[in-house]
UniProtKB/TrEMBL annotation, chain A:
GO biological process terms, semicolon-separated: cellular response to stress; positive regulation of metabolic process; protein ubiquitination; regulation of gene expression; regulation of protein metabolic process
Basic and acidic residues bias locations: 305-324
Protein name: E3 ubiquitin-protein ligase RNF25
Residue stretches of biased makeup (Acidic residues): 342-351
Domain RWD: 11-120
Chain intervals with Pro residues compositional bias: 328-337
SUPFAM superfamilies: RING/U-box (SSF57850), UBC-like (SSF54495)
Record keywords, A-Z: Metal-binding, Zinc, Zinc-finger
CC per GO annotation: nucleus
GO molecular function, one term: zinc ion binding
Automatic annotation (TrEMBL), chain B:
Family annotation (CDD domains): UBCc_UBE2N
PROSITE patterns, sorted: UBC_1, UBC_2
GO cellular component term, pick one: UBC13-MMS2 complex
Any single biological process term in GO: protein ubiquitination
Recorded superkingdom: Eukaryota
Ranges where the UBC core domain occurs: 3-149
Similarity field: Belongs to the ubiquitin-conjugating enzyme family.
Keywords of this entry: ATP-binding, Nucleotide-binding, Transferase, Ubl conjugation pathway
Protein name per the record: Ubiquitin-conjugating enzyme E2 N
Organism: Frankliniella fusca
Source taxonomy: Eukaryota, Metazoa, Ecdysozoa, Arthropoda, Hexapoda
Active-site residues, Swiss-Prot/TrEMBL: C87 (glycyl thioester intermediate)
Gene3D superfamilies: Ubiquitin Conjugating Enzyme
């Protein structure tokens, strides 16, 4: 490090400190020669910090020959900026440094970064709720914990958690209830202040509206085939959880109660056999056996008829249980792990029983295939 | 498939393009909300070497509600019951929409590395895990070898 600082440098630093004040910090050697300049850069928003969604720290290391040789510039602590945008900024900084040799350029560099941030004052990280980015025109929120969400997405979250909170409260005895509900940040669980009513008026994020549809490809099919092959293999080794066996014990208990609808015969083709008994019951220990409420009402009438038919068959089968005469287990080894197998695996383990809220005649078994049909119509 | 939420499509694409090591999640051909999952037993755990099948279903209001997940392959674990149901807070009241299919499955894989017999779902397993951990681990290994390993 030169003992005697270049006049031009000293003048430049003085000017920087006068203009940027607290936003800049200069490190100097013991001899008073500046060697490092750090500046926090925000977009120009007339000092409205609520409107500043991005930021970065520019670190300028003054080389020995500066300003006749270019300084070394590093961008640190970026917020709301992705790698791509940082790379564009860095490229322009490099260019500037090369083209302005001999002139003090720190202020110009900082302004260059600021212009960038101002022109794209949008967080580049995606909204963690919808997984899509922020587009011009989207309404979004910067939380006090510096996380970004579309207003629309956050309102969905707030509404849902408030509903859940109220439901949980109602289950508690009066003295255990707490009155205050707080929306928590989905990322860090810090309480956030937000006005749900205003948020809920926000439109659907633009990127979400225009995203494309996925088509299954050969690779996906291959994976699906592998999955069913492995299922068959484990099934043969007795490694697949057999709901029937589990049921015979569970049935002795009041709750949870599982209706076994024996239907290896497959009602109306394979699509009906896909139902999924356990969903709704992946609950934590305290709530085993509680079924998801939404599904109660959604069973179409035709499906109920099918279920009734299955139930009758089940009862017949139960009567003959000792001999197991009617429904033989499936043929031991199906030829190929393709479609047939797939059907069959669902028949057997997933399809035929559903967690019940209580012992009763109403059943809610329904095919996986149906589920998606009526849900996604 | 047309009205499948964008987020589900995005997650699915990413799961297929950049799969999480040791985890495979593949949508069902008939139902894009239903995933066939394989979680490999974590190294150093009694489940090492096992390929555990799970099923995962995204409910109507996903991601505002947690996915429903259960093991299909038999597994000897104090927090997983006989029906394959999993005791995990993020699947219940600690769910957050910032979590994803991949993070849920990673948490489940982590649960395999860190069984917690003090918060049991399978009582008999948890009991043995508490009083005779060595034997419980032996059982877990045995089940893994017997049910979850490829030939």
């Amino acid at each position: 490090m030169e003992e005697l600082a270049d006049e031009r440098v000293l003048e430049e630093i003085e000017a920087l400190e006068a203009i940027l004040m607290d936003d800049v910090s200069v490190k100097k050697s013991s001899g008073g020669t500046p060697y490092l300049v750090e500046a926090d850069v925000f977009p120009a928003t007339a000092d409205d910090t609520d409107q500043q969604y991005v930021r970065v720290t520019v670190e300028v290391k003054l080389t020995l020959g500066y300003p006749d040789t270019p300084p070394v510039v590093v961008l640190r602590n970026p917020r709301g900026l992705d790698d791509e945008r940082l790379r564009v900024i860095m490229d322009q900084i490099e260019e500037k440094c090369q083209s302005c040799c001999g002139d003090p350029i720190i202020y110009d560099l900082i302004e260059l970064v600021r212009e960038h941030l101002t022109s794209s004052n949008l967080p580049a990280c995606p909204c963690t709720i919808c997984l899509y980015g922020f587009s011009e025109g989207d309404q979004f929120i910067k939380t006090t914990c510096y996380h970004y969400y579309h207003a629309y997405c956050l309102s969905e979250h707030a509404t849902k958690t408030e509903k859940f909170f109220k439901e949980e409260q109602e289950k508690l005895p009066q003295f255990q209830r707490s009155k205050t509900f707080e929306v928590l940040c989905p990322i860090c669980r810090e309480p956030i202040k937000c006005d749900v009513e205003t948020l809920s008026k926000a439109p659907l994020p633009l990127a979400v509206q225009s995203a494309c549809i996925m088509e299954p490809d050969a690779k996906l099919r291959e994976l699906q085939d592998y999955m069913s092959a492995l299922y068959i293999q484990q099934k043969e080794k007795g490694g697949i959880i057999d709901p029937d066996a589990a049921d015979s014990k569970v049935l002795l208990v009041n709750e949870p109660y599982y209706v076994v609808i024996k239907s290896s015969q497959t009602v109306n083709g394979s699509s009906t056999s896909n139902s999924n008994p356990f969903f709704g019951s992946g609950e934590s220990c305290t709530n085993i056996g509680r079924a998801p409420p939404e599904e109660e009402t959604t069973t179409p009438r035709w499906r109920q008829r099918q279920l009734e038919q299955q139930e009758r068959q089940r009862q017949r089968a139960m009567q003959q249980r000792d001999g197991r005469p009617m429904q033989q287990p499936k043929p031991p080894k199906p030829p190929k792990p393709t479609k047939t197998n797939d059907d069959d695996d669902d028949d057997d383990d997933n399809a035929d029983h559903e967690p019940q809220r209580s012992i009763g005649r109403q059943r809610r078994g329904r095919g996986r295939g149906q589920k998606i049909n009526h849900r996604n119509r | 498939m047309a009205s499948l939420p964008r987020r589900i499509i995005k997650e699915t694409q990413r799961l297929l393009q950049e799969p999480v090591p040791g985890i495979s999640a593949v949508p069902d051909e008939n139902n894009a909300r239903y995933f066939h999952v394989i979680v490999t037993g974590p190294e150093g755990s009694p489940f090492e070497g096992g390929l555990f099948k799970l099923e995962l279903f995204l409910p109507e209001d996903y991601p505002m509600s947690a996915p429903k997940v259960r093991f299909i392959t038999k597994i000897y674990h104090p927090n997983i019951d006989r029906l394959g149901r999993i005791c995990l807070d993020i699947l219940k009241d600690k769910w957050s929409p910032a979590l994803q299919i991949r993070t849920v499955l990673l948490s489940i894989q982590a649960l395999l590395s860190a069984p917690n017999p003090d918060d049991p779902l399978a009582n008999d397993v948890a009991e043995l895990w508490r009083v005779n951990e060595a034997e419980a681990i032996r059982n877990a290994k045995e089940w893994t070898r017997k049910y979850a390993m490829e030939d």
